[in-house]
Write a structure and sequence with these properties.
Blueprint lengths: L1 H10 L19 H8 L8 H9 L26 H4 L2 H14 L1
Helix pairs in contact: 1-5, 2-3
Keywords: DNA-binding, Isomerase, Topoisomerase
InterPro entries: Topo_IA (IPR000380), Topo_IA_AS (IPR023406), Topo_IA_cen (IPR013497), Topo_IA_cen_sub3 (IPR013826), Topo_IA_core_domain (IPR023405)
Protein name: DNA topoisomerase
């Protein structure tokens, strides 16, 4: 059930491709822009945390992960509200992806 939801979030443009085992971001990935995008999520409680990461210089490059060569790690792509993604389990999965990314 969770993978079906993740695939719908992917096809709707909210997260990157969900079928991956890769946990390492490319060196040229613009992760700060993803964080800036997530500050526009109206139903989340992480905007304040993200803003402090970006404005107070607390942002650090993610630790090296594992690159299995298929797709980049699952990453939020655009800001959303609970209603926009479909609420319920759709919001829970989207929220989880965002929290894990942050």
């Amino acid at each position: 059930h969770a993978m079906q939801i993740a695939e719908r979030l992917y096809t709707s443009g909210y997260i990157s491709y969900p079928r991956t085992e890769t946990t390492q971001y490319a060196e040229n990935a613009d992760l700060k822009s993803v964080l800036r995008e997530l500050t526009h999520c109206s139903d989340s409680d992480w905007q304040t945390h993200i803003k402090s990461l970006l404005s107070e210089g607390q942002y650090t490059t993610p630790k090296r992960g594992k690159d299995v060569g298929d797709h980049p790690p699952i990453t939020p792509v655009k800001a959303a509200s609970s209603a926009a993604v479909g609420g319920g389990d759709y919001w829970r999965i989207y929220d989880y992806v965002c929290r894990h990314f942050i």
